[in-house]
């Protein structure tokens, strides 16, 4: 069975110089030694700090920098693509956030051990949306798609077997709703890791305006997933322009796709 050393971590970060070091140390505590970092319009020392800490941890670090921020979740897609391109022999890509705090490394190690026992499945974590109507919508969606009702595909961490990217391009990681829908349509199973304790990682508090934007994104993702999986009104999924800079993601991925050829639904965008 593969272990954490066979996993590549994908990180998107924007001005996280004060937190990126802890995230890398905790990822290292979980046994992961390869990290792809998308620096998303950073204006501080995020990249320099990531290089410094990864050197002390003897990690392999791949950095992709964008001068202009790509938008919500898009850096995750770029980092996932880079991890796949750079380390194609990896068993999976691990996705975490670059602003997590606390000593979550041991919990992450347990998450990965559980995931590696089911290497064919994507694994996420349980959670809730603060808007009750939206949370119920996601619960119905994932249950109807044949996934555990407690799963919230937009929450991290994610364990994504590299084999999944042969069917669904990592570009769709930029939209968790689409990625969930397309992987389920391709028959890739999803599991949920119930012991995950989100209180330990504690993302920094966000303002009311930021939280409202996040809820708008989650509604957009839910609508897109529903349309891919179950039909709907017949309108195209709200990919473009939506809440994300798809043009920048597509431009970068078209340059970097290299020898990999995705199959399945990657031509939808």
From TrEMBL:
InterPro entries: Nucleotide-diphossugar_trans. Gene3D superfamilies: Spore Coat Polysaccharide Biosynthesis Protein SpsA, Chain A. This is Glycosyl transferase family 2. It comes from Alicyclobacillus mali (ex Roth et al. 2021).
